[in-house]
Structure formats: structure tokens, C-alpha cells
Amino acid sequence: YATMHVSGGELFDRIVEKGFYTEKDASTLIRQVLDAVNYLHRMGIVHRDLKPENLLYFNPQDESKIMISDFGLSKMEGSGDVMSTACGTPGYVAPEVLAQKPYSKAVDCWSIGVIAYILLCGYPPFYDENDSKLFEQILKADYEFDAPYWDDISDSAKDFISSLMEKDPAKRFTCEQALRHPWIAGDTALCKNIHESVSRQIRKNFAKSKWRQAFNATAVVRHMRRLQLGSSMGSSMDASNSGRLSLPGVTAPVTPCSLASAASSPAAGAELARPHPSAVPAPVLTETK
């Protein structure tokens, strides 16, 4: 992969600093992400860790393009290894990843749906102070378009998000399908200024001072041990693998082998201005290969 210097800053910073921000702006941002990820997918590359802080502006100019960063968890699809290990950032990973099922590039499309959701309201679609309950929400694709935060958002935007945050990866929109959606390709994205509401929620739920908190590896193991995938999916620790977590039916053990920031999870203790508790920052789950 090419390495280049980008100086435009992070996505959330740019949105908060703007005085005017609309659905159309969010649509333009997501279209850029879709174009980039669609290119990756055509090249057989699955990013596997798409999240807002991995979206950087190339330069400080207003018309700067969005760049996708951090390919540390990316993988070539069809490279011989079946992708089934839980990796990515909880809160952005697709249900099939948490379910330890073989998955495909469709996981990136789910993550783009989550990002689009956040760009239109400023808070994440999945949140809970209890890690297991957070995982259960994702596994069930249990999210809502809460009032009043979504009252001024178009039905087209909600339909677009629902098409990407589809629990069944076979029914989930691909990048190419998403690029043809009216909210991206048409004129259904509204031009009403939603900056005040969205920026306020971003500041509350993604406080930058909390973005760099790290979690140790044992916390990740405990995180996975509490995951309930059904009566036939009990988890067990394999002492011979130095703390690796084995799940029945999974060929490769899950190993939390790196400490990562909780950059894209709501800050611990942050007050969510909505009728639900805030989420605890989640660690990144990385693959051993």
C-alpha cells in the first residue's frame, strides 16, 4: 500500500468546526467512502476496520477529499484463508463477524452504514454499558432512528442506512448498489442545517480526550467470553494457547494480540442526550494472522 502524508485532520473535527452541515454534506462524504471502498473491493481487499477516525482529510482545504487510513487489519479476499476471526472495532463490526461465521467484503458495507448513521445524528446506533448486551444488539441488528434526533432526517437517508445495516449479508447492499441509491446518486438528501444537533452529539459521545484509552488483552478475552451466541455456542479458554479464546466451530482462535484505542466508541461516562445509557469504549479485536 502507498504511504502518504495527510494534513487535513479527522472527520469528526472537521464536522464540529463547520458552522453549516447538512444531510447533503453527509451524503457527499459517504459517497467518497463508498467510491474508495468499492475500489478496494474490486481489487479483492477487505478493510475490516472502517470507522470515523480512519477517515482523514487529505489537506485543510474545504474541498479536500476523504482518505481511508489504517489497513492493519485488511485482508485479501480469496487469498486461501477463510475470514472468520473476530476483528475490528465493536460497535462497527457486522453481526456475522461477532457470530464467528465466515464473512466477506460485506462487513465493510455494514461499517459504512454505521458511519452514515453517526454522521446524521452524532451518536452510535449500538451502545450499552454492558459489553455482552452491546454485542447482542449488534447480532440482532437492533437499532432505531430515535426521535427527536432523526425527525428532520429524510426517509431516503434512513432507507439507505437500513440497506447497509442489514443483518443478512446476502441481502445487504454492496458498495455498487449503495452508490446507486437515490440518497447518494439522486437528490433526496436534504439541505437543512443539522450542524447544531449533530456537532453537539459528537462532542458528547466522542470526546477526544477519551479517544486514546487503551484496554489490556485480558479485557478483550473477558469481552469475548461473555458473548452469548446461543445455547450451542458456549465459549472456553484454551490454557495451552496462552490465553487464547476458542469458540466451538471456529478453526482459528481469537487472540487479543494488540492494545488499541477506543477512538470510535462513545466516551466512558459520557452523557448521551437520548433515552439510553452511554456505551463503554470498546477495544479493537485483532486477528492473529
TrEMBL record:
Annotated GO MF terms: ATP binding; protein serine/threonine kinase activity
Region (Disordered): 265-289
Entries under SUPFAM superfamilies matching the protein: Protein kinase-like (PK-like)
Record key words, sorted: ATP-binding, Kinase, Nucleotide-binding, Serine/threonine-protein kinase, Transferase
Organism domain of life: Eukaryota
Any one Pfam family match given in the protein's UniProt record, by short name: Pkinase
Residues covered by the Protein kinase domain: 1-184
PANTHER family, per the entry: SERINE/THREONINE-PROTEIN KINASE
Name of the protein in its database record: Calcium/calmodulin-dependent protein kinase 1Da
Organism this protein belongs to: Salarias fasciatus (Jewelled blenny)
Top-level taxonomy: Eukaryota, Metazoa, Chordata, Craniata, Vertebrata
